[in-house]
Design goal:
Blueprint lengths: L4 H33 L6 H14 L7 H11 L1 H5 L4 H11 L3 H5 L4 H14 L6 H18 L5 H14 L3 H7 L1
Length: about 180
């Protein structure tokens, strides 16, 4: 058996992908969903995400595990270095709820305020003031992101920057 550094690294790569496959898939699906729902241009970057997702979903993905690891590293080195960083957690959270983006993208703060008015008229605590504030924060966040819809890579960098500036957004998403 070969115990060289290169072989140990290859085995570590396989273990990393196997241990984190579901989270990596959620992350990839989340970014694909963001690109599709924000109607970003579907560039080679998008096509690479689709290919990577498809490779991971194949039953025989272990045969190409080293290539998959290299493709993941080219795509987003954070995914390799810190599987639990904020943007990865945010995108996987969005990916876990398929209805979230289709609901949020077309909404404005005005729409949420109308929901608040209806909730007040009904006087049934189905939607609380806290829920409304969280939705408004999410809508505001979305509107800030819409300013960067020119390129996928710029959009994702801006998403990362916006997440760093919004400490309560992920908490709001968890509650909605």
């Amino acid at each position: 058996m070969d115990f060289s550094g290169n072989e140990i690294e290859k085995q570590g790569n396989k273990l990393f992908i196997i241990q984190n496959k579901e989270k990596i898939l959620l992350y990839l699906k989340g970014i694909i969903s963001i690109i599709e729902h924000f109607t970003l241009e579907k560039t080679g970057f998008y096509n690479n995400l689709i290919d990577l997702r498809d490779e991971l979903e194949e039953d025989t993905f272990l045969k190409n595990i080293n290539d998959i690891k290299n493709n993941i590293a080219k795509f987003d080195i954070k995914l390799i270095n810190d599987i639990n960083n904020q943007i990865i957690n945010f995108i996987t959270l969005i990916s876990e709820n398929e209805n979230f983006l289709p609901f949020i993208i077309p909404k404005t703060e005005e729409d949420i305020k109308k929901i608040e008015e209806l909730a007040c008229e009904i006087d049934n605590q189905i939607v609380t003031n806290s829920d409304i504030k969280k939705l408004i924060e999410i809508i505001s966040f979305k509107e800030n992101l819409k300013k960067f819809i020119n390129k996928n890579e710029d959009f994702l960098k801006q998403l990362d920057d916006e997440l760093k500036n919004s400490k309560t957004l992920t908490l709001a998403l968890n509650d909605v």
